[in-house]
Specification:
The protein is α+β, with helices and mostly antiparallel strands. Helix content is 20%, strand content 50%. It folds into 2 domains: 43 residues; 170 residues.
């Protein structure tokens, strides 16, 4: 019987020590188009104000494993539903920031329009400019997302995501103002896959059975 106990304990420990498998979760603000907003370059820095972000795209979440889009609403006038969330950013020293403020309905959860859905800072970026085009690409840096948003999507509210990837472009109008035409803000995270949770649960259950058997 002692040999059986040892075998059971080894099995339980091996299950508990399984390295969890992870699924890739993606949260993407924007569908590649910008609904407006102004970009300004000052030397090696660039800022953008009032850029409309109309779509939130999610995949790999426990509740939405397939690609799913949600309509963003907010202070920007236009877009699906008549409004969109607002993107503001600045890479300048002392003002380094990026925010998306708006609302979204996910299932039964209604997030109001004045919610800061994403906030962060830049650690690196690339600027390109010619007479009629101004763009920022490879924008990277840490960010945080609204906890209610993550919870509504089925993520843990403190789930860590990789640094955001941000790009935006603007065309010059007749007055020489650069008006945003496209944008994309994407994050990736890692979520434990169900098989890992099953193995962990099996290990815990096995440990409980061994304890009960030894008491008897």
């Amino acid at each position: 019987m002692k040999a059986l106990t040892k075998i059971m304990l080894v099995l339980v420990l091996s299950l508990l020590m399984v390295v969890p498998a992870y699924a890739v979760a993606v949260i993407d603000f924007g569908d590649g188009t910008a609904k407006g907003g102004i970009l300004v370059r000052v030397g090696g820095n660039i800022s953008g104000t009032g850029v409309g972000i109309d779509v939130l795209t999610v995949s790999g979440s426990p509740l939405f494993p397939d690609l799913t889009t949600f309509d963003l609403s907010g202070a920007f006038v236009g877009g699906v539903g008549g409004s969109a969330a607002v993107l503001n950013f600045d890479t300048g020293i002392g003002s380094n920031s990026i925010t998306i403020t708006g609302g979204v309905t996910i299932g039964a959860t209604v997030i109001p329009d004045n919610t800061v859905l994403l906030s962060g800072t830049f650690t690196s970026w690339t600027i390109s400019q010619n007479a009629i085009l101004l763009s920022l690409s490879d924008g990277m840096g840490p960010d945080t997302k609204d906890r209610t948003l993550l919870t509504a999507l089925g993520f843990a509210p403190d789930l860590p995501f990789n640094f955001f990837g941000f790009s935006i472009a603007a065309d010059s109008d007749q007055n020489g103002t650069f008006v945003a035409t496209s944008t994309d803000i994407i994050n990736t995270g890692k979520v434990p896959e169900p098989i890992s949770l099953i193995l962990l649960g099996s290990g815990l259950a096995g440990a409980g059975l061994v304890r009960r058997w030894r008491k008897k």
